[in-house]
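Allow me, if you will, to draw on your knowledge of protein folds for a short while. I am sending you one protein, given as its amino acid sequence and as whole-number tokens for its backbone shapes. Kindly check, if you would, that the fold set down in the tokens agrees with what the sequence suggests. The record follows directly beneath this note:
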Amino acid sequence: MFVGTIWSLLPPIIAIALALITKEVYSSLFIGIVVGGLIYSGFSFSGTMEHVFVDGMIAQLSDSWNVGILIFLVVLGSMVMLMNRAGGSAAFGRWAVDHVKTKTGAQFATILLGVLIFIDDYFNCLTVGSVMRPVTDKHKISREKLAYLIDATAAPVCIIAPISSWAAAVTGFVDGANGLSLFVKAIPYNFYAFLTFAMMITLTLTKYDFGPMRNAEQSIKSSSKKAKHELHPSITGAEDQPTPPTSLRGRVIHLVLPIVCLIICCVIGMIYTGGFFEGESFVDAFSNSDASVGLAYGSVVALIITIIFFLLTRVLSFSDCMNAIPEGFKSMVPAVLVLTFAWTLKSMTDSLGAATYVAGIVDNIAHHDGLMSFLPALVFVVGTFLAFATGTSWGTFGILIPIVVNVFGGNIDNELMIISISACMAGAVCGDHCSPISDTTIMASAGAQCEHIDHVSTQLPYAMTAAALSFVVYIITGFVRNWLICLPLGIVLTVATIYGIKLFSQKKSA
């Protein structure tokens, strides 16, 4: 009775509403999961228990893709703990104090690092967070702002990088057309990604923040008041872990080399899964790669190399290295728990036919000729809503992209199809940014060691502003169909909007 109807969206809506109201993630997600189980089973107790735990949680934790991501996550946590104990992070912090002189410089360094790590969004979130936390803390940048900078460079840079796990995912959802060629053609129309970058840079240059982020930034400036991340535990729970003395022999190389090694190993791991060493070209290997397995391969190899390097340079003993591994694992347990709940909630919405319900709406819209020029804007809105409700951008790709391709018959020379595909990708990233149950949002909180709901509430006004501007530009693009006109127009609108908000707030406070 409830399957394939608007009721299928109730579990994620309840979870998101409770999370924003109570500011408590675990119980909110679990209540959403239980509601999904009750609806699916027709409010049967035994049916609900079986669906939640067997079909939901256990199935998600036994899924090979999810297990690979969890392995990558905990190995990365162990590597971060090793780098901290070796003194690499502290040494980089000292170096950054000497070379990054201003708060603006620290924010630009964070953005630049986020752009450079375009291979995978999970990798981006955790690596940028662990490297830049000491620098942003020194310049009194709030953890909420750091989490925003991480989140706003992770998915947006991956969705416009042809060599990334996201490009591989998108091309995998395109049947009857050259997926990679379609992805490359769609890049200039991914307005949400580009306008998010424009917004970040404008906010950084103008030294201006608005909404809850402004309050967070003003709070951190007060030297007499403890930073919020010191008063409340972060998503990683790292504050609860013991803090043994770090090695005094640590140098910047003890941070830089493991990260460079991790990047190289992860790239090799991904192209290995795509058949590069069996004769496939680099681009084809990346398109066909299994990001989950590749990241697991790469991170484990990088961990072994890091331990050997630390032993050879005598910054840590063998026993210190082995002790750091489970501590790093423990620091990621809360993030793993949130991810598990988010994946289980997604499985509840999938079983209730939320995807079918939303797909039907899009399909009906697409077959009205009078609405075709508005299709990119409509696809963007639907993609945003679907990603927000389910917490997954890749799932949104899988639902909407095949529908759009079928509507246009897989003709990659049709400019409106290219724009609509890009609108789908942009909407998925936008909804992913806004949703507290999104795995990327969770990873950004983990990377910044920021309280998760604080990250969501401070980022939401920024993401919604970029979304509103993107929607306007997609309406224009549906008629103009030329990115050389529409993309610069969108960037100008973004800069003008930020300056407008700034002038309005100044007049209001005067």
About this structure: The chain has a mean pLDDT of 82. The CA atoms of residues 473 and 490 lie 6 Å apart. The longest helix spans residues 452-480. Residues 64-174+247-338 form one domain.
